[in-house]
Amino acid sequence: MAHIPDGFLSAPVVAGTAAAAAAVLALAAQRSRQRLEEREAPVLGAATAFVFAAQMLNFPLGAGTSAHLLGGVLVTAVVGPWSGMLVLFAVVLVQALLFQDGGIAAVGANTLNLAVCGGGGGFVLYKLSLGLVGEGRRRRVGAAAVAAFGSTLLVGCAVAAELALSGTVPLMPALVIVGGAHGIVAVGEAALTAAILGALLRARPDLAAAVAVPPRATRRWGYGVLALAVGLAVVATGVASSRPDVLTAALDRLGAVGGEPAGTAGSLPNSRSPIGGPWVAAAVGVLITFALVWGAVRLARPRRSRS
Amino acid sequence: MSFHHLDQFATVPSPVTAMPPVARLVGATSVAVGAATLPLGAWPAAAALGALVAAMTLLARVPVPLLLRRMSGPLAFVLLASAGLLVFVPGDPVLDLGWVAVTRPGVERFGFVLARAVVALSAAVLLVTTTEFPDLLDALRRLRLPRVVTTALSLAYRLLYLLMEELERLLRAARSRNAGAGAASRRRLAAGVAAAVLQRAFARAERTHRAMLARGYQGELATLTEWRWRAWMVAALATLLGLVLVTAVLARG
């Protein structure tokens, strides 16, 4: 459930996510206005309409399941991160207003998930993996696939966190089910993003190669940051597993601030279960899969190095 | 397929369609937000907001079966998504299903999430049923959404059904060329078709944009209708907002 319907989020979460999304969008509007060229207006409209139409296209994943494109990485890779987030926001808005896919009150949360986490976060992953693999059509497509995979997981974690903070579902099942479902969807998203971007790179290189590859010097930084992130995650796992109550307390405090009134369904029902585990496990899982897929891309590289 | 099946009641004369689109958008959004953010267990408040939407529906002269039919699609999704609440909320088991148990808090939460969703959804459906999209865009522009977003939306509105029809045509053609193909080649086909649609979308958008510029487009999609606020409209919107606010406060107090 990438588009959260109305009714699943509590008032504080609705307000908080709306404020966060509005802040990022305001920044995005300002940034994109600074660099908006005349030619870009039709491209943004087409991107919006395309993501929307593509979301109607269900993609068979096998075993009776299907998923549709979220489009975060695809859009930001073609029109840039700031305009891309605005396009994704427009898609969320059309989905909510015209077709009731995702609630009106949940527009803020859905924008935060799909545009900011999926689009902006996906773009960061794209840029990072581009920095790692370097120039070339195949590598660009590989980087986009990795980023699409990671961004979909990011969306899933964000949805799960919002549901848990709302007190709708305990965090553990939310992460397992919503996050797990997005893990499956992520495979389709990566494949679709790679296929579409690959075709676009062949047909319209001017559009698809808009994002510059970071120079070689920054690539070393990329490796450093990746190593640091994995190291931090490993340390965090150790700390979290020895003292699981830190995160629990933090979540409890958030729940207490937001608070459902007492006597209805109680406070957050998950306050007893250790919360540190799944969060950190998810983060480590993301990093490991990222490293694995990136390694695969890297291995596939020598075959067509000077393309 | 076109947008006309969405807003066919926008031209029915009624107090609701006489209101400026901004008022309709703000009103529907406030009801939806008010309903969606009710604290768990506030059944009377949910019922009150539901009654408010029902009254609006009658005022707008939208047939109730139509409203229900439009809600059924999204509602099926909500039902699917919230079914998990029945078993994942810890509490006293009321129904043991072997390895999982339906819990009492689970049932309560499931019911209330569903109620919130129904009320919010009906407000949203009523809004699109009574408002044409260009008017809705105009309202969004008046509410100071970033210009890039409204421009993208207005162009997307022109392209949306064209693209969806193109997608269907291409898929149909691809399917008939590859009848009986397996899942793997269906996947490849879908991706190829999607990529082709994206290229066509960009090409078409550039053509459309050039044509629009040639006809004097200056970044605003004009609507012919001039909306005027009258005293009763302001009063009606204020009453609606007041009712939603009072309900929200009472539900928490």
Give your account of this protein's structure.
The complex is a heterodimer of chains A (307) and B (253). With 307 residues, chain A is mainly alpha-helical. In chain A, 74% of the residues lie in helices and 2% in strands. Chain A has eleven helices and two strands. Chain A is globular and about 45 Å long. The two termini of chain A are 39 Å apart. With 253 residues, chain B is an all-alpha fold. Chain B folds into two domains: 15-141 and 226-252, no CATH class; 146-214, no CATH class. Classes of the chains: A mainly alpha (307), B mainly alpha (253). At the A-B interface, helix 1, helix 2, strand 1, helix 4 and helix 7 of A face helix 2, helix 4, helix 6, helix 7 and helix 8 of B.
Measured between the Cα atoms of the first and last residue of chain B, the distance is: 47 Å
The number of strands of chain B is 2
Strand order of the largest sheet of chain B: 1-2
What's the story with the biggest beta sheet of chain B? 2 strands, antiparallel
- The proportion of residues forming helix of chain B, as a percent range, comes to over 70%
Please give the count of helices of chain B.
Answer: 10
Order of helices and strands of chain A: HHEEHHHHHHHHH
Summarize the structure in short.
Chain A contains eleven helices and two strands; from the N terminus they run ααββααααααααα.
Question: Any key phrases for this structure?
Answer:
heterodimer, A: 307 residues, mainly alpha, two-stranded antiparallel ribbon, globular, disordered C terminus, B: 253 residues, 2 domains, 2 strands, 72% helix
Can you lay out the helices and strands and say which pair or pack?
The complex is a heterodimer of chains A (307) and B (253).
Chain A: H1 11-35, H2 40-56, E1 59-62, E2 65-67, H3 72-79, H4 81-99, H5 107-133, H6 137-165, H7 171-203, H8 205-208, H9 216-242, H10 245-258, H11 276-300
Antiparallel strand pairs in A: 1-2
Helix pairs in contact in A: 1-4, 1-5, 2-4, 3-4, 3-5, 3-6, 4-5, 5-6, 5-9, 6-7, 6-11, 9-11
Chain B: H1 15-18, H2 21-36, H3 43-59, H4 64-82, H5 85-88, E1 93-96, E2 101-103, H6 104-130, H7 133-142, H8 147-177, H9 183-214, H10 231-252
Antiparallel strand pairs in B: 1-2
Helix pairs in contact in B: 2-6, 2-7, 2-10, 3-6, 3-10, 4-6, 7-8, 8-9
